[in-house]
Amino acid sequence: MAWFILIIAGLFEVVWAFSMKLSEGFTRLWPSVVTMAAMLVSFGLLAWSMRSLPLGTAYTVWTGIGAVGSFVVGIVFLGETANAARLSAAALIVSGLVVMKLSSPS
Question: Membrane spanning segments where (predicted)?
């Protein structure tokens, strides 16, 4: 269950990162509200998953989901570049997450 909660926390990290971009430096009300709400949910779920997962594993997976998810959202919704170097970097992050999961005792 902790892994499922951690994945949901990572997805909420993607939501707050995207909505923060849309808030234009917190100058737009509703994207700013979504950012703050998603941050609270994301941090809360991360904290809950850390009850049973090791700190290093939970935090690394959470930030990795946020990083790769935000990368994908940037490409799909914001027209950001998807060149070979950026795609390779994302693949390395995902590979690291898989190794972190496989090496975790929980």
Answer: 27-47, 59-78
